[in-house]
Structure formats: C-alpha cells, structure tokens
Amino acid sequence: MLQVPAHLQNSWESYYMEILMVTGLLAYIMNYIIGKNKNSRLAQAWFNSHRELLESNFALVGDDGTSKEATSTGKLNQENEHIYNLWCSGRVCCEGMLIQLKFLKRQDLLNVLARMMRPVCDQVQVKVTLNDEDMDTFVFAVGSRKAMARLQKEMQDLSEFCGDKPKSGAKYGIPESLSILSEMGEVTDGVMDSKMVHYLTSHADKIESIHFSDQFSGPKVMQEEGQPLKLPETKKTLLFTFNVPGMGNTSPKDMDSLLPLMNMVIYSIDKLKKLRLNREGKQKADRNRARVEENFLKQTHAQRQEAAQTRREEKKRAEKERIMNEEDPDRQRRLEEAAQRREQKKLEKKQMKMKQIKVKAM
Amino acid sequence: MTVNNMADPRRPNKIFRYKPPNTETNPTLEDPTPDYMNLLGMIFSMCGLMLKLKWCAWIAVYCSFISFKSLKCNASGLLSISAVVMSYLQNPQPMSPPW
Predict the structure, then answer these.
(1) What's B8-64 look like in SS3?
(2) Which helix (H) or strand (E) holds A343?
(3) Testing the interface with A: which of B18, B37, B91 to mutate, by most A Cβ within 10 A?
(4) Structural domain tally of chain B?
(5) Which segments of chain B have a pLDDT < 50?
(6) How far is A207 from A147, CA to CA, in rounded Å?
(7) Domain residue limits at B85
(8) B15 lies in a domain?
(9) Positive or negative torsion for Cα A268, A272, A277, A283
(10) Structure pTM?
(11) Inter-chain touch B15–A218, beta carbons under 8 Å
(12) Is A289 within 8 Å of A137 (Cβ atoms)?
C-alpha cells in the first residue's frame, strides 16, 4: 500500500516543524523570564549587601537625575534586562561614584548557548569622578595581564602616559597574575602601600582592572576625518572593574564577597587625596603632559590650518554676498570700498611682518 | 566597614546629580544587536510575505523576539507575526523541512 505524502495528510503529526518552532519560541520566552528574574535578584542581593557601606559614605545613594530635589532613591536604576546602575554622591574627596552592574544576558537564549562554549563572568564597574583638588597628576593602572595589555592599547591616557610594557606585580608583593602600568616609579610606590597590596593579594581573582588617572578621557576615539581637531576632554577618574565569582553560575550569596572590594574603592578615594608627588615627580608629570599636548598640536597643525583657511574663505564669501544683495548702489559702493581698504590693510600688515622676520633673520 | 571614626565623610552640600552617559559621544556604549535583529526580522518578514516562504516568516518571528523590542510590540514584531499568519492562511499545508 502506498503511503500518502505528508503534505496531503490532515493529521497534526504532519505539522511537526511548526510544533518545533512554537516550542522553540516558548523556550525562548521561558528563558527570558527566568533570566531576567535571576539578574534582578542578583542586582538586589548586591545592593542589599552594599547598602550600609554606601549610605555611611555618601549623602546621596541612588539618583536617576529626573527628580527636582536631590534625594536618595535608595534603589538601583535598571537600564535594561542585564545592566543596573547606581549613582552615589555627597562625599569628601570625590564628586560622585557611578556603579554599573553588568550582568550576563541571561534573558537571551542565544547568549546562554554561546556562553556554554565560552564562559564569561558578570562584572561590576565602579567609576569615581574627582574634583581637581582630590588627586595629584598621574596615571596608574593594575589588573590582570590580559586586561592591562588590552587597556594599554585601547585607553587614550594609558597609551600616551604609560608607554612601557606592563610590569609583573610580583615585584610589589602582589600575585604574578596581576600587572602594573604606571607613569613613573614614584606613583607605583605611593599607591602600592601595605593595605593596597593586601587587598590586591586577597582578591586578585576578582580584580579585572583598576585605573587611576588625572587624564582620563575613555577609549581612543577616531573621528571620521582621521584626527580630532582638539584634545579630548579629561576628568580625574578612578575606574575599577571587578569580576563576580562563579563564572556565570552566580548566586545571590556571591555578592557578599564583593563587599571588601567596595571597601578598597573607598580606601583608594581617601588615599589618593593624600598622595602627592614630590617636586621631581611633579615636574616629570608636567613635562609629560606638555609633551602629549605638543605632539597632538603638531599632528593636527595641518588640519587646523585648513580649517582656519576654510573659515576665512567662508567669511569673505558671506561678505561678498552681502554686498551683492545690497539694493542701494551708493551703499553697495561704500561697502565695496570698505572691504577693499580692509584687504589692503591686511596685505600691508603681512608685508611688514615678513620684512621684520627677514631683518631678524639677518 | 571603613567609616572614618574621626568624622562623617558624607557631605550633603557636595551633591552632584546623576547625568546619564551620552551615547552619541561614545558609540561603544550602545549594543547594536537588537537593531541588527530588528532589521533582519523585517527583511525575513518581507521575504516570507512576498515569496510565500513559511520558514522565512518563522525566522522573522525569532529575530523579532531576539531583538527584545518586539516584546513591547513594535512594527517589526507585528510584521513577522502577520507574515506567519498570512503564509498559513494562503497555504495551510505543514512546512516541509529544507532537507
């Protein structure tokens, strides 16, 4: 007996592909709900374990920037299903602290499957912005070898001020798995006191990177024209990136183990206020900053000249257009004569300058 | 706890308000995946509707789900669902696997 082809049968069994598709969608939705909830519980667990420390150090804990009054919301801002942030402000020695909880995309099934091949961990990033008087002028970073190599390439300030290869942490009594990038030896000696060494040694596995800089402007940004026309804006910043233990299989209890790292952050804020370079160090730092600025100006000299020329031509064209559009012929004539006189004066000034330069050269 | 026993480090008069980071000045902050998935979803929806390919329509629905935003019912999500519905209304036969 011949079998009736599947597409001519009327039973639900022939719709197995559709059933598979719907099952897949249901699995995605279930994973979305479970993943989102897990991230939310982790975020809340982190906040519960850190709340007391933060409230004892900052007058404002939690702000979304929208309310009229600066009052603590006392809760995290949820940016999306896997990123939460918390803004704290109102403390000595700093402007404010932005904490970002960057969880894994547990709500995305594709991401969950990808992580089975390549495990990644949740991260907590703490960015402390400082006032001018809260920190002296230096650039310093310590962290895992891989992170230091990457940051030295990516970060504007680390590539400009810490050009030497990262040094092994073993020289300073911290695990070999950590490396140091520093503008000068005095800075490393100043930062790596016994308490800091203790923090780094006890929690080396959770430290991805620690970056102190008075010239922080974020990662290098390439403009479309090839080079930015002005130096990027810098801000005195401390940037800490911590790895949450568990390598993705994190539980709310693991958030307590991050508390000593927040203690280290607070300790660093107070310490850097007191850390001052000696005279030689300060001179070296000033020379470094002047060198970077000079290099930048040299590189962008051609672009700035071109931009100035374009502006001058634009101005001339606009003036000519104004004269052409003038209806009164007398007024037009007067404006033309005034423009010609201005051009003549400029030319005479330029000729005088050239003569003076020639005389000086002789 | 590292509270300074000498003095309270809190300063209510030194409060700065939170300013959300500007993603225009730093494009690395934005995640492009939802936008790509959204676009892919729209392309597959159009293919599914015009070429009457059921598997295209189903992929469009998956893309819309992955781009998150469809869960808040945007145009791409509705388009992909309508692509699936239309292909089954026009041809109620079950989908055949590509192999």
Answers:
(1) CCECHHHCCCCCCCCCCCCHHHCCCHHHHHHHHHHHHHHHHHHHCCHHHHHHHHHHH
(2) helix A329-361
(3) B18
(4) 1
(5) 1-5, 69-71
(6) 10
(7) 32-93
(8) no
(9) positive
(10) 0.81
(11) no
(12) yes
